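User: Predict the structure for this protein chain, please.
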Amino acid sequence: MKSDKNKLLAGKPIAQNPIPENVPVVDLVDKYFQAFNAGRLREVCQLFADRMLEHDVTIGMSITGALTPAGLGGSCIVPLIEAGFVDWIVSTGANLYHDTHFSIGHSLHRGTPFVDDRVLRKEGVIRIYDILFDYNVLLSTDQFFRAVVRKEEFQKEMGTAELHFRLGKYVAEREDALGIKHSSVLAAAHKCSVPVYTSSPGDSSIGMNIAEIELSGYKTKINVLLDVNETTAIVLDAKENKGKSGVLIFGGGSPKNFILQTEPQLQEVLKIKGKGHDYFLQITDARPDTGGLSGATPAEAVSWGKVDPDSLPDTVVAYLDSTIAMPIITSYALAKRRRRKLKRLYDRRQEIVENLRKQYERSNRKHKNSVS
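Assistant: Here is the predicted structure, written as structure tokens:
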């Protein structure tokens, strides 16, 4: 049998060159992130910038964990949206809620996790690990969302993409009035027509405030089934005309599953032929053997139809903190790639859902005929 030694040792030699002063991020990643999870982060950056950001790839991003309170909404997610590097988003409601604090004029502060929380409670200070802010920030943000959602345009049934698009208009107006620029995920998504979904809309302060409004007799209703069909339609639309679908996953939880379940929804439930997402990048600190990554490592996701088996070389999981990885990935991509033309998927929701409906009806008729 022919030896595979040459093939196995074909990678670049591990270098020990001293890091220069003020090294650009692309050189830092490409030359000095060599092994272990630094190596995986290099692979994420390179695959994202060199392959996923081609014009024919539709990119969905999921975000979990307290990322926006750490400033990553305005510093990373908004630039990715504005550059056309993210076409649709699945987020926890908490990230969208806490992101709004900045846009309506409030501040969150660097602090320490090593503080007596009884003292914080007495002083009216909220802690998110090492982020500290005044309790009144929550009350003010609650008041903002309740005032907006009481408006007539919200008195209807809608999915979370429509809810967030409409909210984003008012967040953007508040930013403009206060002279705040490029801060809010909701405002940027509204301006760029990037649909933003929340897979568990009741599991955040935005949902809690909508629930309070419902008790007051208002008619806002959130229909998550619309979200299931819209996100599935986005992936189907991405694959048509020889296009591709890529997912960029920060953390896990419900948003991770929601962005990945689009392919099983197409293949398993709707019986529409498909092979899975073409690109899969994940930043996580969870482990598959404890259930935190069940069904969501690239190889395991292949068995569900979530990932195209032919695309396994185009999948990377980096096991590290999203708050470290996201700024590096964002800076690397912005340095290497020009802006992409915005796909403005929110504006096309009705069109792509209608296409999904037609393909489902054809598939359903074909399936019924084959069974009979």
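The CA atoms of residues 151 and 256 lie 32 Å apart.
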